[in-house]
């Protein structure tokens, strides 16, 4: 998508999706009549990366994990894990202001996966310890 519209995609759509993952995604979809999820899904299919990865890419901005789970429970787990990872990366490496939308997105994923607090603390500690090198955290989305 950034190759298609390099002058405004990154700032207008991609960057906003880090802290407003649903509303900015909807804006992208409305503007382009497609989204990076569909482009990524096509690439995953073309490269034969398997249905789990394909569905995880396509659904990673879907607003209802239970709907995804009714279609593919493993993909829903991957999507929820991706949500938690993106939230933690944003929390550790970005602006300390977390939007309500991002917090809700994270809380839904945490409830869906039923992760204990110590697992989240361990993931955050790992990011603090090893995530600073060579732009590692910039590739989170």
Q: Key terms for this structure?
A:
mainly alpha, 141 residues, 68% helix, single chain, globular
Q: How would you describe this protein?
A:
It is a single chain. The chain is built from eight helices and no strands. It is mostly helical and 141 residues long. The protein has one domain (9-139). Helix 1 runs antiparallel to helix 2 (23-32) and helix 6 crosses helix 8. The longest helix has 21 residues, at 73-93. It starts with 8 loop residues before the first helix and ends in an 11-residue tail after the last helix. 24% of the residues are buried.
Report the sheet with the most strands, covering strand number, pairing sense and barrel closure: none
- List the helices and strands in order: HHHHHHHH
What is the tally of helical segments?
A: 8
Could you tell me the strand content as a percent range?
Answer: under 5%
Oligomer: single chain
- How many domains? The number is 1
| Contiguous uncertain segments of 5+ residues | none
Radius of gyration: 15 Å
Q: First CA to last CA: what distance?
A: 13 Å
**Could you say which overall geometry the principal axes of the C-alpha atoms support?**
globular
According to DSSP, the number of beta strands is: 0
Structural class: mainly alpha
What value does the average pLDDT take? 89
Helix content: 55-70%
Quick recap of the structure?
The chain has 141 residues and is mainly alpha-helical. The protein is 68% helix and 0% strand.
